[in-house]
Amino acid sequence: MNPTHSPRDGAGFHAPPKKSLGQHFLADRTYVDRIVRAVNPKAGDRLVEIGPGQGAITLPMLRQHPQLTVIEFDRDLIAPLTEAAATLGELTIIHRDVLQVDFTELAAGTQIRLVGNLPYNISSPILFHALEHAAAISDMTFMLQKEVVDRMAAAPGSKVYGRLSVMLQAWCEVTSLFVVPPGAFRPPPKVDSAVVRLVPRDPAQVGINDKARFAEVVRAAFGQRRKTLRNALNGVCDAAQFEAAGVRSDARAEQLEVADFIRLANTAPI
Ligand code: SAM
Question: Same domain for 48 and 69?
């Protein structure tokens, strides 16, 4: 490991990190390089970074790929980022809450590639927001708490397999890439982080008839994960639906494959 200070030290980023915005800035160049390599920007890509912060990932990426759009909520970071990027390439800064950004509109008929060391306090809302726009996104390379990445990538039978695993894996291929220790950040978070890649599946291949119904079934099933599905889904799915889907009603949610949830949700609601 080669711990360094922020790549932008001395470049005008003087405001102290804001806890409320989940600001833990990546300060170890080794991990910055690994993230940029994992993204592997190619000519013609439409790269969009969520939460560029002090530019730890933004500026090295801009050196490789001189057109980049970033979405940053913290007003204090906008001017210094603009200044730091000026000689490197064309940086478009969207100063807005990422949850208010319409990725489909941003993609404008093409597809974008999302990148980000996400603000951990809103990492799940960002993932669900991205899912809403999955057709406009070709892939996502995100850093989040390792515990969340473990849940995202978990397989049936695992203790951490749950709603997040099923919802994300239904729409995306999820691959956990590598772990990043707290010491790689300023200030260090309390927990390990991990980098994950999500590649949205072709929506036509996903096979979910009704997104809202699917979400309802998954939420209810894991809402009471220790109960059998018959009990957890009481009022949501009846015996005929279990039968039609070929899913055992005496199983528990954590035993079902993603495809089982999709078949169960696709049977007609009560
Ligand atoms: N990418 C930088 C790095 O790796 O050092 C910063 C990562 S820091 C964990 C998260 C960044 O997301 C911060 O810059 C923070 O200001 C920004 N942020 C927090 N909430 C946001 C929101 N709702 N919309 C857009 N950006 C947000």
Answer: yes
Smallest CA-to-CA distance from 126 within 48, 62, 39, 205 is with: 48
Distance of CA 13 to the CA centre of its chain: 26
Q: Which residues line ligand 1 (CB under 6 A)?
A: 21-26, 51-54, 56-57, 71-74, 97-99, 117, 119, 122
The first and second tokens of residue 163, run together, are 């709603």
Domain count along the chain = 2
Report how far ligand 1's centroid is from the alpha carbon of 42 (Å): 24
The stretches in the chain having pLDDT less than 50 are 1-11
Same domain, 23 and 96: yes
Q: Are residues 96 and 219 in the same domain?
A: no
Domain interval for residue 226: 207-267
Neighbours of 21 (CB within 10 A): 17
| Cα(180)–Cα(189) distance, integer angstroms | 11
Contact in structure between 174 and 232 (CB atoms under 8 Å): no
Average pLDDT, the chain: 93
pLDDT in tens, 69-113: 999 999 999 999 999 999 999 999 999 999 999 999 999 999 999
